[in-house]
Specification:
The complex is a heterodimer of chains A (361) and B (391). Chain A has 361 residues and is an alpha+beta fold. Chain A is 53% helix and 17% strand. Chain A has a seven-stranded antiparallel beta sheet with strand order 1-7-6-5-4-3-2, sandwiched between helices. Classes of the chains: A alpha+beta (361), B alpha/beta (391).
C-alpha cells in the first residue's frame, strides 16, 4: 500500500513538475519584460497614479466644498462627488490589475473631462481665476503623465508575444498561445482506457462523429488530412492540416497548412485519470475564422461561442466513446431552440439538424 | 398524440403533438397508461425554473407499455412489456452511473452547458423538466420516448396495479432516499418538513428503516392526518398554530430531532433560479409566507445530526445559517433521487405488502383534465395530495 501511494505520489509529482516548468517559463518571460527599464517604470508610475486617483477621489467625495474653494470654482457638490467616484473607480481598477493599460486610459479620459469642466470656469469672470488656472496647469501635467504611462503599458501588452527569442522551437502549447485568433481550451474525462481513447481520436476520420461543425475529414497521408466544416448560412470551409506531433497515448498536435481558408492550430492531450477512472482529455486550439474576430463575435450573437462549441464537441466525444453514439433529446437535435416535444416528419425534413448518428437526418 | 404542454406561467394545455420517434439506438417508445403530477412540476408551473419553453411537454412520473424498441435493446425489453420509468435519464456506463449516482449521469444531458452555467457541473437529463436538464419531452402524454430503456425502466409484475407501481418513478424512491440519508439508528427521532406526497413517503420510509418516532410538519390538517393515519407519523406539528422549534424541543427533551428531512424545497423558501434572483427575493416577500423550512430544519436539528434535503432547489438561497451547520457539526445530505438504485428493492417491498404507495392518491383525472389537476394541486383544493392522470 505504502509503495503504491509513493509511486502514485511520484506520478503526480512529475505531472506537477511539468506544470511548474510551464509556469516558470511564463514567469521568466515576465522577468524578461520587466528587465526593460521603461516598462518597470510604467508599472510603478501606474501604481502611483492609482493611489493619486483614490486620494483625489476621496477628497472630492468627502470635502467637495473645501476643494471647490481651493481651486476657485463654483461649488457644485453633486458634480464633485460624481467626479470623485469616477476617480476612485479608476484608482481601484489600476491597483487591482497586473497590467492596467485600460484603467490608465480611463484616467486619460477622466483628465479630458476635468479639463473641459475647468475650461468652463476659466471663461467666467470670477475673482478666483488665478487659482483655477493653477489647477488647470496641474491637471495638464498629470494628463501628460497619464498619457505617457498608458502608452507605455499598451505597448507592453501588445508587444508581449513578439518578444519571444527567435529560434526557439514551438511546443504545441506555445503554438496555440502565441498565434492570433480565437483561443479555446476545454477538458473532459471519459471512463475508458487511454489506449482506446487515443486510438479513436488518432483516426481523424472519426472526428465528424462528434464534432458537430465538421462535415468530413479525409486522411491524405501520414502527415496530412483534408477537413471540411459547415459554417453559418450553409457555407462550407475547407482546409488541409498537418500533424505536427503524434506521441501515442499522450498528445496529438496539428496546424492548418498555408493557403487554407481557416488558419487553425491545436493539440489534444491525453493522460490517465487517477485510480483507473479513465482518461482525461484536454483540447486547446486557436482559429482565425474568415472575417476575423469581429465576424466570430457577430456569429456568437446568433449562436454559440467557440468555447461552447468545442466543449459541446468534447461532451459528444464522451457520448460516442462511452455509449456508442451522441445522445439526443427532442430539443437537442435542432441547432436552434425547439420545445421539448417530438417533431413531425415534415419538421425534421425542414430543419437543419445537428449531424449525429442515430438522429433522423 | 395528446400531451400536457407548458404554455407559460400557470398555463398548461393538453395539445395535439406529433408522436415520439426513436432518436437513439437504446430508446423505447412507451404507451402511457398512468402518469402523475409531481410537486416539483408545480415549480415549473409557477415559472420558478428557468429554461422552460412554450410548448414543452411536462411530466416525469409515468408508466405504460412498450410499443417500439430501438436496435440496441435486443435482450432487454420487448414490445408489450409493462414498465415503470424512473425520472432521471441514465446511461448506466459512465462513472457516476457505475457508482450508483444515476441522477448525475454524465451522458444524458445534451444541454449540459446550460446546467454548468447554473450549477458548475451538470446533473443528468430528466423527462419534462426544462431545457436545463436536457429538453426531453415529458410523460403527461399518450406516448413517451424513453432513452437508455435498458437501464431505467423496470418491468411491473402483473399482480400489481398501475397505482401501486407508478410512484416507483419518483416520489417513493425520493422519500426513501431522504430517509436513507438520515442513517437511522434505533431510538432515532426524525422530523419531516412537508407532508406532501414526497413527505408522506419520507415518513413511511423512516418508519420502515426503524425510526423510533417520526414527526410531520405542515400547515394543512388533511395532509397531517394522512401522515398520521396512512404514512405512520407518530406526531404532527401544524406550523401555523405553534412554533416548530419550541414544539420539537419539547417533544425531544430539548435535544432536537436526530435527523431532519426537508421535503418542501424552493418555493417554501421563496427563492428561485439564479437568473431571477431579485425577482425571487421579491417573491419571497410578496408571494409566500414560508421561506423557512430548510433554515428551520437546520436550527432544529440535534447537535451532530443530519439534515437531508430532498425538496427541490433551483439556484441560490438567502440567509443560510451556516454558523449553525459548522459549529454544531451538522451533516447536510442532498440530491435528486438516484431512482434506478431503489426501484427493485422498493418494488419487492410493495410485493411483500410492506407498503401500498397508492395511499397518497386523492384524485384520478383524465389526461384532458391536466390543467384542472394542476390548479387543484397548486391551490390544495378538495384536500388534494396527489393527482394521477389516465391518458
Amino acid at each position: 500500500m505504502a509503495t503504491e501511494l509513493a509511486s502514485r505520489a511520484g506520478a503526480f509529482g512529475s505531472e506537477g513538475l511539468e506544470y511548474n516548468r510551464m509556469h516558470e517559463r511564463r514567469r521568466n518571460g515576465d522577468q524578461y519584460r520587466e528587465s526593460r527599464p521603461q516598462e518597470g517604470n510604467a508599472e510603478q508610475l501606474a501604481r502611483f497614479l492609482g493611489w493619486l486617483s483614490i486620494g483625489l477621489g476621496m477628497a472630492e467625495v468627502v470635502a467637495p466644498r473645501q476643494l471647490a474653494r481651493l481651486i476657485g470654482v463654483e461649488h457644485n457638490p453633486g458634480l464633485f462627488r460624481l467626479m470623485g467616484f469616477r476617480e476612485i473607480g479608476s484608482g481601484v481598477a489600476i491597483l487591482s490589475q497586473d497590467r492596467p493599460a485600460g484603467a490608465v486610459w480611463s484616467r486619460v479620459a477622466g483628465d479630458v473631462l476635468d479639463l473641459a469642466l475647468l475650461g468652463t470656469q476659466l471663461d467666467s469672470d470670477h475673482p478666483e481665476r488665478d487659482r483655477t488656472w493653477t489647477a488647470t496647469l496641474l491637471v495638464l501635467g498629470v494628463t501628460a503623465l497619464d498619457l505617457y504611462t498608458a502608452r507605455s503599458l499598451s505597448r507592453e501588452s501588445n508587444g508581449g508575444s513578439q518578444r519571444r527569442p527567435a529560434g526557439e522551437v514551438q511546443s504545441a502549447r506555445e503554438m496555440v498561445e502565441s498565434g492570433s485568433g480565437i483561443k479555446v481550451k476545454t477538458a473532459v474525462t471519459v471512463s475508458r482506457p487511454i489506449g482506446e481513447v487515443y486510438g479513436f481520436w488518432r483516426n481523424f476520420e472519426n472526428l465528424p462523429r462528434f464534432m458537430t461543425h465538421l462535415e468530413s475529414v479525409h486522411v491524405l497521408d501520414g502527415q496530412r488530412s483534408h477537413w471540411v466544416a459547415l459554417a453559418p448560412a450553409g457555407q462550407r470551409l475547407e482546409w488541409d492540416a498537418e500533424t505536427l506531433e503524434d506521441r501515442p497515448n499522450e498528445l496529438i498536435s496539428w496546424r492548418s497548412l498555408p493557403g487554407s481558408q481557416v488558419d487553425t492550430a491545436g493539440y489534444v492531450r491525453f493522460r490517465p485519470a487517477p485510480a483507473n477512472r479513465g482518461t482525461e482529455i484536454v483540447v486547446e486550439m486557436r482559429y482565425d475564422p474568415p472575417g476575423g474576430v469581429v465576424a466570430a463575435a457577430i456569429a456568437k450573437l446568433f449562436g454559440e461561442s467557440g468555447q461552447e462549441a468545442v466543449t459541446r464537441d468534447l461532451r459528444a466525444f464522451k457520448n460516442v466513446i462511452e455509449v456508442g453514439e451522441v445522445v439526443h433529446s427532442d430539443a437537442s437535435i435542432y441547432t436552434r431552440p425547439h420545445p421539448a416535444r417530438p417533431s413531425s416528419t415534415k419538421e425534421l425534413e425542414k430543419a437543419r439538424l445537428l449531424s449525429t448518428e442515430g438522429a433522423p437526418r | 398524440m395528446r400531451a400536457t404542454c407548458w404554455e407559460g406561467k400557470k398555463k398548461v394545455r393538453v395539445e395535439q403533438v406529433p408522436d415520439p420517434k426513436i432518436l437513439n439506438s437504446r430508446d423505447a417508445i412507451v404507451r402511457i397508461t398512468s402518469t402523475a403530477i409531481c410537486g416539483s412540476d408545480l415549480h415549473l408551473y409557477n415559472g420558478f425554473v428557468p429554461t422552460m419553453q412554450k410548448g414543452d411537454i411536462l411530466g416525469h412520473e409515468f408508466m405504460g407499455e412498450v410499443v417500439e424498441t430501438g436496435s440496441g435493446l435486443k435482450n432487454h425489453l420487448k414490445i408489450g412489456d409493462r414498465v415503470v420509468v424512473p425520472f432521471p435519464i441514465s446511461c448506466g456506463t459512465c462513472l457516476s452511473c457505475q457508482n450508483g449516482m444515476f441522477s448525475l449521469c454524465e451522458n444524458s444531458n445534451p444541454n449540459a452547458w446550460m446546467a454548468e452555467k447554473m450549477f458548475g457541473h451538470s446533473p443528468a437529463g430528466i423527462f419534462g423538466y426544462s431545457h436545463l436538464t436536457g429538453g426531453y419531452a415529458g410523460g403527461q402524454a399518450e406516448f413517451a420516448r424513453v432513452p437508455f430503456a435498458d437501464v431505467g425502466p423496470i418491468k411491473v409484475p402483473e399482480e400489481l396495479t398501475d397505482e401501486q407501481a407508478l410512484f416507483l418513478s419518483d416520489i417513493f424512491p425520493t422519500g426513501y432516499m431522504g430517509a436513507e440519508m438520515c442513517d437511522i439508528k434505533p431510538g432515532d427521532v426524525i422530523a419531516v418538513w412537508g407532508a406532501g406526497p414526497v413527505g408522506q413517503f419520507a415518513i413511511a420510509s423512516a418508519k420502515m428503516l426503524g425510526a423510533e418516532r417520526v414527526i410531520a410538519i405542515d400547515r394543512f390538517e388533511y395532509r397531517l392526518r394522512m401522515a398520521r393515519e396512512k404514512a405512520g407519523a407518530t406526531e404532527t406539528i401544524n406550523y401555523e398554530e405553534v412554533s416548530v422549534l419550541e414544539a420539537l424541543n419539547e417533544m425531544t427533551g430539548g435535544r432536537g430531532p436526530d435527523a431532519c428531512i426537508d421535503a418542501v424545497g424552493m418555493e417554501a423558501h421563496g427563492h428561485a433560479a439564479i437568473y431571477a434572483y431579485d425577482r425571487a427575493k421579491q417573491a419571497l416577500m410578496l408571494e409566500t409566507d414560508r421561506p423557512i423550512a430548510l433554515r428551520e430544519a437546520i436550527m432544529a436539528c440535534k447537535n451532530g445530526g443530519t439534515v437531508s434535503v430532498i425538496g427541490v432547489y433551483g439556484g441560490l438561497i438567502d440567509k443560510f445559517p451556516m454558523g449553525a451547520v459548522m459549529n454544531r457539526s451538522l451533516t447536510i445530505k442532498s440530491g435528486q433521487c438516484h431512482v434506478q438504485r431503489y426501484m427493485r428493492p422498493l418494488l419487492e417491498r410493495i410485493q411483500r405488502g410492506e407498503i401500498d404507495p397508492s395511499f397518497v392518491i386523492t384524485h384520478r383525472l383524465e389526461l384532458d383534465q391536466a390543467a384542472e389537476g394542476y390548479e387543484m394541486f397548486l391551490n390544495k383544493e378538495d384536500d388534494c395530495v396527489k393527482v394521477v392522470l389516465k391518458p
